[in-house]
Amino acid sequence: MRALASATLALLLCACATPSRWTTGEPLNGVVARLGYPTYEFPGENGQRVLEYATGPFGKFTYQLRFAADERLLSAEQVLTEANFATIVAGMSTEDLRRRIGPPAKRFRVARPPQTVWAYRYDAPFCQWFMVGVGDDGRVMDTAYGPDPACEVNDGDLLSMGRRR
């Protein structure tokens, strides 16, 4: 039941929370009344507030809405894009990473080099995700693209189809 509720929320956010549905100058309280509480909030430059609406571990969109000090909408951006991924560099802190592209869909540990991988699903023509290797010091070590395991096919079944019995 909990999974169904999460999936429904993600679909509603995707359906309702598109940048074309927001108007520059819209008040912050109006956005929150429509979308609910953000998944994350952090301060921006010059007294701005940034509200983040992430669509969850299987969602491919994370929206960040920037509000001026007077709590009027300045901009709305879908941040899970290859252009934003290209700005992630070695040495960046996890806080900067988090504020730049939001929460990862999944985190997992790898042994060589020892690091925690933050993996991000995003809207792409192929079933892939963006991965960021984070060292034990909390700094970005490297980045890469790879196949999203949610899309993997059991290759053994495909290979056995062509075999004679």
TrEMBL record:
<feature type="signal peptide">
    <location>
        <begin position="1"/>
        <end position="22"/>
    </location>
</feature>
<protein>
    <recommendedName>
        <fullName>Lipoprotein SmpA/OmlA domain-containing protein</fullName>
    </recommendedName>
</protein>
<keyword id="KW-0732">Signal</keyword>
